[in-house]
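Database export, one record per block. Field names are fixed; values are copied verbatim from the stored entry.
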Amino acid sequence: MKTHSLQDLKDSFAPSNRMPVVFLGHGSPMNVIEDNKYSRAWSDLGQSLPRPKAILVVSAHWMTKGTTLVDVSAMPRTIHDFYGFPKSLYEQQYPAHGNPELASEAVTLLASHRAQEDDTWGLDHGAWAVLKFLYPEADVPVFQVSVDMARDLDHQLEIGPALSALRDRGVLILGSGNVVHNLREMHAGSEPRDFALEFDTLFSDRLTDRDFTALGDRKALGTLLTRAHPTVDHYLPALTIAGASDSQDELTFMTDAIDLGSVSMRSFVFHRA
């Protein structure tokens, strides 16, 4: 599989009715109010992507158990689901409309995954913190799909193909989490932890080879997975996006740094070229 850099991503998009699928490592909420390499990369990506009819977000911060929920609200609220940050973060709003029609279609596509409609969630910071840079005018409808924490990794891989038909309806499928996310070993200014580098490299290699089965095999990933992800909530959206890609897509990696020692900011896009 070919890979591209972010610099040539815009030129690499082929004229196509099939929207790309995107995974963004969102990291700290502070990225929303800081001018850094991550926020700048998200802005650049937003200017490069084809304009979608709507955005479906699978965020690490909407966790359910025993079902997959889809937000069908017409005007999703902005959720400030974090604590101990500056006041300016809590003042952030992302007043995008929802798309109840497409959200209901997603429920139908996910019928075999125990999907249900929900109108109470909205947009958590895994969604709006990156959307503020991709589409700063909040002028593209957005709806979220939860991750079912009661099921194993392969279940989330299966969510991707089930949703992939929406790519042909002008829907940008966006995953938001982190390829490595161990807050217990996070430390400002520290060098990347060995386990973080190892898992990040393993993930990128398997993704490039389209060996998604390996990425969803908890037993084979073993203690390296549990070190990289004490809980797998931030890993699951990456599996969704991998599953929503197909063999005709090409792969672009971006922002592949390890932040704070144990948080991978690796992001990637599957797209026609």
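Remark 1: Residues 194-208 form the longest helix (15 residues).
Remark 2: The chain has a mean pLDDT of 93.
End of record.
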